[in-house]
Amino acid sequence: MRIQPRIIPRSEHPISRSDISDNALKVLYRLSNAGYKAYLVGGGIRDLMLGHKPKDFDVVTDARPEQIRELFRNSRLIGRRFRLAHVRFGDEIIEVSTFRAAHHITDGERHIEDGRIIRDNVYGDIDDDVWRRDFTVNALFYNIDDFSIIDYVGAMADIEAQQLRMIGDAAARYREDPVRMLRAIRFAVKLGFTIHPDTEKPIYELNHLLNDIPPARLFEEFMKLFMGGQSLKIYHLLRRYDLFQHLFPLTQQMLDQDETRTDGMLCRAFLSTDERVREDKPVTPGFLIAALLWPSLAELVEEYKSNGLTDQDAIMLASDAVLSRQITSISFPRRFTQMARDIWLLQSRLKHRRGKRPMRLLSHPRFRAAYDFLLLRAEAGEDVQEMVDWWTEFSEKHQDRIGESHHGRARLRRSGRRHKPRRV
Length: 424
Ligand code: ATP
Ligand code: MG
Known about the structure:
The protein has 424 residues and is of the alpha+beta class. The chain has 19 helices and twelve strands. It has three domains: 6-161, Beta Polymerase, domain 2; 169-213, no CATH class; 218-424, cca-adding enzyme, domain 2 (Orthogonal Bundle). α7 packs parallel to α9 (215-226). The relative contact order is 0.08.
């Protein structure tokens, strides 16, 4: 049975073509002029409806990937699990995908294991495609032919009610792709929506499914969760739904052992990350990794030292242990774990304040990050205030000798990202 959508004509919705990027419009028109259907879909249209500035624009069409490839010289096909085209205009990438059919259809092009979608290249039409999307607010289509919005799933009503609601049976949809649990949290925070009770409830029972997600995909999701300027809220929700333990098992252990201290440290780290994003200062996950794993690291360092190891050796060994455990959950690229290592090692070197060593440390490329980390420890109640005061005075006196600025070179690109996440 086909469901009749609600069609909202141009005169009854606020989205105008001038809100949409020129490149996205170009793609829509070229597809349409070639005789294909072409819609704007997903986060771009959702954000416009809510008065946010969209991060990017996704297009969906009945043209097949090869046909899209032929139509756009500046395009390439990506993804095996989910084949789609990236059309590139300088820094901006418009993602163009072909309508997918709903999940009850099975044949060689769709591969499902234990309820999980492994491959999904069964093509369909718009009224097939809509059902495989995750939340109702993500399933609005903007039709370039008449500028209307097509709503199959009651998205407009959910926008009105400010609620995030899964399309279909939430538990089954989480089983198909457990990352949707993280997406629920991310969108709830980003949009300021509540999560509908039916969408929320299964998360408590299914959070453990995150353990089966490839660590590389969780890294992509980690970046979106924690580097978007709302990491503190995200952290609270991840803990509320018991998702956090599956992303940071070691940190969860420390929270269980000493909630107040560990939570204090984490909250301050998230708060300062969010502040930096708001002030448009560069942020990298290296600093957050250092903070998230610091309680576990500190405990291990103490143990190694009581076995006779020096400070530096203990930190190095403990870093290896803690990081190698962490990357089995989230595979942080080496440049980020290396930054955490540097920050940790420098915590020990900051203790030495005699002779030429402080001056040398000042010019270390990670000095600023290590100093900021020391501040964080002091704020979190560690007994390092005296060190903080000393280094504050010393570094102010010799400002010109300070190495590279705070979070280092690894400035994150906030726009025009080069690769889009894989997805189901
Ligand atoms: P943003 O780009 O702001 O993070 P978005 O909603 O555009 O949010 P994308 O990951 O860019 O998210 O995906 C685009 C659209 O594809 C989504 O709006 C949704 O309709 C669909 N989608 C993406 N990932 C999934 C998923 N894991 N399960 C179901 N649908 C998905
Ligand atoms: Mg998007």
